[in-house]
Amino acid sequence: MGNDHVASIIVDVATEGTDKAFDYLVPKELSPEIEIGCRVKVPFGPRKIMGYVVGFPEKPATRRLKPILDVMDIAPPLTPELVKLARWMSQAYLCPLITVLHAMVPAVLKGKYQRILRLHPDFAMKKLFVEAEEELVRLLQKNREVTLNRALSLKGVDRSLIREMVDEGLLVMEERVKDRTTRKRRIWIGPNRSVDALRQSAKTLPKSAARQKEALLFFAKTGKEVSQPELLSQLGISKPTVDRLVEKGLLYREEREEYRDPFAGHSFEKTVPLPLTSEQEKAFQTILGPLREYRHETILLHGVTGSGKTEIYLQAITEVLNTGRQAIVLVPEISLTPQMVKRFKGRFGEKVAVLHSALSDGERYDEWRKIRSGEVEVAIGARSAIFAPFPHLGLVIIDEEHESSYKQEEQPRYHAREVARWRCVEHDAVLVMGTATPALESYYSAQLGRYRWAKLTERVQGRPFPQVDVVDMRNELRSGNRSIFSQPLKKALENCVDQGEQAVLFLNRRGFSTFVLCRECGESIQCPHCDIALTYHRVNQTLRCHYCGYACGVPTQCPSCSSKYIRYFGTGTQRVEEELARLMPGLRVIRMDVDTTRRKGAHERLLTAFGEGKADVLLGTQMIAKGLDFPKVTLVGVIAADTMLNLPDFRAAERTFQLLTQVGGRAGRHQKPGRVVIQSYTPSHYSIEMASNFNADAFYQQECKLRKQQRYPPFYRLFTLLFSHPDRVALMQAGTRSAKMLSSRLPKGGELLGPVPAPVPRIKDRYRIQIMIKYDHHMDEPTILIDALRQLKTSFKDPDLRIGMDREGVTLPIDGDG
Ligand code: ADP
Ligand code: ZN
Ligand code: ZN
């Protein structure tokens, strides 16, 4: 391990210049606690800052090292494996190591924390040898708990003494972090004296203090603490009564963070493995092989919606747990629904931790702690759950692996699929990527033989695919129908409701803009700080910018021509809802979009209501496209299929295909046959046509051909550099200079495009331009280019300039196809 008196530390200063480890001395008394992955406090210039221990150098850089001041955690939040992963990510995604390390630990660890000491619940006064020990125990008996620093201030008490006492089971040390978001606190009242002492005190109370007496006898009987509200209501006493008893020291009052269990109150019905269909069995065996041999393999589980992929995941996890290893399940944020959680909790019960972004920071931390301490063996969560600090990872499952939310759009801009692959190689673990519509990259890798295919072509119990009709909206216009709804969709909807069945209407949020338009001059009203139209919010009659948060009242006249003829378009879903009310009065509609699901739990409530048949139609955005399983849904309508095709994104066709295939899967999941109606202005586009024919292979072939032609991933590697600056001229200069510098470092056959304005050319008063770099994916990592990119940020002295880098298709060292 080298010289264990010196540690290399990555300090918490996120500037390029400090992206290297600094050496610090490990003081003797901290030495047992300093491990790779732990957080420490160190002097840095005039300040004291936080850092992560990342190694123990053989030869420290200099002799005159400063000492580490403190260790911040009881157990290191990161394992050596995660520290190694962080190094790889920092290289691969060109971002500072500290940013990656931060991304791996729960957010609360960045906030204020305290270490708390308490007596062990089973503490029994035994003979204590040292005076300092007795002193500490007395302090704890008086105060119930004290901070570590308070304890250390006692004479003769030092860290090794405390450590000893913890090891001997006399004390408990606990980290307490402040949960800044939703701090759920509760006040507890409990007996501060023995049962006999309480009885004794009750006797001595004057007659006038009957209430106090009652409270004391209550505690003398139960001997247990109770929450203040409960105490007050149970005994019918008032708070001042309790206050008095607390003042006398007979009772204690303590405010504590409530134990946060996001699924408290849910009961999960135990489920047992289902006998697999023969298709499922085959796919399962493909996973089982490498799993049992402790051999890394990536398996693309390509199964149509409803083919029973989740049951395969569950059974594979059972297998992993039986070998004493752990499993991570990644699901897109949007489909991390209670329904999904229920399936995992139903099979594995308490062994599951759920990492959900709707959790408060504190709740997330609680779940994470269960993983770190080995209390759970399965972690299920969105993207960042890939960093679950399991020591013996056996299996990673990525459900809906094609989902764009697996890519983080801020630093570190990693893709969970690539990180998962790295971890699985490191652990000789199996990676299963399940989807009905693989990402093109994954499809291509499977075709090359880099991934194993496992295909599920049938729905469980042979349920038929729905009938899909594409309606040409241009024809509707020509025949005079200017409504959002085509005749065929309207008829289908009426039919569906007449039969007492349910429909799902899907609208792509990004397509249906929600702006205010002047009918005289045709201008939409723009954000004064961003080059983007303001969004109209009908509920509170405001215009808002979705990029910077700017909000204003709705104007009565056009800001550019002063005309009074202004037209408001409600949010896409609101508009559709209004139109539905007009077309089919009495129709019961549940609308699900960002506006109706903002409150915690709203998502679930709306879905439950729909599941209970309280509405005929579920109308919503992306969030209803996947994962839902309602037996009574027989119709799925897509309001506008091509809105996404117009986005400036080389994945536009792929995303359209995936989305249409996914929504189609929502119809006819059970006994009743399903029907899908897709409305489109470009019905002959290959993504729409092939999705409606369920012809995945044809789509992927076509798309591969185009990507190759247009030099996009997976055939080309792609860097996007985004420059932003409040001054347009300075920005352009920086962009041009960078382009020139980078052009000379391009690998052979590489290509540099730009600088050009970014898709949104100005956000928050900062102008934005971008540069794109492409090169052949067969190329070895072009070191000269990568070095140039790394240096780019430091080569400008302008503090107003920001440069972001985004990378598509990181080469993994294990990719063997050359
Ligand atoms: P997917 O994840 O591929 O969309 P699911 O796992 O949700 O598919 O399965 C669809 C439905 O079929 C679920 O209701 C599930 O309980 C059921 N199912 C899955 N496998 C089996 C099986 N072997 N036997 C009976 N029902 C099954
Ligand atoms: Zn704005
Ligand atoms: Zn106008």
UniProtKB/TrEMBL annotation:
Keyword match Kinase: no
Task: State where Zn(2+) 1 binds.
Answer: C518, C521, C558, C561
The entry's cellular-component GO terms read:
primosome complex
Q: GO terms for molecular function, please?
A: 3'-5' DNA helicase activity; ATP binding; ATP hydrolysis activity; DNA binding; zinc ion binding
Q: Which SMART domains match?
A: DEXDc, HELICc
Where would I find the Helicase C-terminal domain in this sequence?
Answer: 553-707
Protein origin, superkingdom: Bacteria
Q: Which Pfam families match?
A: DEAD, Helicase_C, PriA_3primeBD, PriA_C, Zn_ribbon_PriA
Q: Which InterPro entries match?
A: DEAD/DEAH_box_helicase_dom, Helicase_ATP-bd, Helicase_C-like, P-loop_NTPase, PriA, PriA_3primeBD, PriA_3primeBD_sf, PriA_C
* Reaction catalyzed: ATP + H2O = ADP + phosphate + H(+); Couples ATP hydrolysis with the unwinding of duplex DNA by translocating in the 3'-5' direction
Binding site residues for Zn(2+) 2: C527, C530, C545, C548
Q: Tell me what organism the protein belongs to.
A: Melghirimyces algeriensis
Q: What is the role of the protein in this entry?
A: Initiates the restart of stalled replication forks, which reloads the replicative helicase on sites other than the origin of replication. Recognizes and binds to abandoned replication forks and remodels them to uncover a helicase loading site. Promotes assembly of the primosome at these replication forks.
Q: How is the cofactor bound?
A: Binds 2 zinc ions per subunit.
According to its UniProt entry, the protein's GO biological process terms are:
DNA recombination; DNA replication initiation; DNA replication, synthesis of primer; double-strand break repair
The keyword Zinc-finger is assigned to this record: no
Q: Where does the Helicase ATP-binding domain start and stop, copy by copy?
A: 290-456
Keywords from the named record: ATP-binding, DNA replication, DNA-binding, Helicase, Hydrolase, Isomerase, Metal-binding, Nucleotide-binding, Primosome, Zinc
Q: What name is this protein filed under? A: Replication restart protein PriA
What does the record give as cofactor? Zn(2+)
Q: How does it assemble?
A: Component of the replication restart primosome.
Similarity field = Belongs to the helicase family. PriA subfamily.
What EC number(s) does its UniProt record assign?
A: 5.6.2.4
